[in-house]
Amino acid sequence: MKSIKNEVINEIVINKSRFITILVNINSKDEVNDILNKYKEIYKDATHYCFAYVVGGYCKCFDDGEPSGTAGMPILNVLQSNDLTNVLCLVVRYFGGIKLGAGGLVRAYSNSASESVNKADIVSLVYGFNIKIQFDYDNVKLIDYLLKDVLVTKRFDENIIYSFKVSEENYLVIENVLNTKTKILKKESILISE
């Protein structure tokens, strides 16, 4: 599985119609409406806001007034054929006055999504964990050594609390020490970039 590292915005013009494609990394389908509303405000006079997304094994596409199957599905096909997940692809269309026909629309939305994916910084995803641990100050050197290659958010109170993401493979290496030297407050399965 793969995803995108950063947001991508790309524009193409086909027969006077502007197709502005926005690729956004998402972690849940709950984020989709806020992102769509943001771009509908930015491009408020556009004719269509067609999109597709894939996240957590779930996918959805939407034609937004274009003939059925000519916009959302071609966008979704691009995401799926590139093995992408945790990605929302929105294509904003400004109608240029020339009708493209069903085949022309499919090609336009496919090309627009494909160009954006080709410009994206693609990252591989692996299964991992979002972890929050608590431990005594006596163990700080050992825990810091174990997590030396991991981005950690640290909080120092009566005890120390670390929050971090780690791949499943790396977790197996440190699991024994974490289980014996810390109290695991949270361990949630997630997809993370390698």
Structure overview:
- The protein has five helices and ten strands; from the N terminus they run βββαββαβαβαββαβ.
- It is an alpha+beta fold.
- It has two domains: 2-120, Ribosomal Protein S5, domain 2 (2-Layer Sandwich); 126-193, Alpha-Beta Plaits (2-Layer Sandwich), CATH 3.30.70.
- The strands form two sheets. Strands 1, 7, 8, 9 and 10 form a five-stranded antiparallel beta sheet that branches. A five-stranded antiparallel beta sheet has the order 2-3-6-4-5, with helices on both faces.
- α2 packs parallel to α3.
- It is elongated and about 70 Å long.
Summary, kept brief:
This protein is α+β, with helices and mostly antiparallel strands and 194 residues long.
Give the helices and strands, then pairings.
Layout: E1 2-4, E2 8-14, E3 17-25, H1 32-42, E4 48-55, E5 58-62, H2 72-81, E6 87-94, H3 101-119, E7 122-135, H4 140-146, E8 152-156, E9 160-167, H5 168-181, E10 183-193
Antiparallel strand pairs: 1-7, 2-3, 3-6, 4-5, 4-6, 7-9, 7-10, 8-9
Helix pairs in contact: 2-3
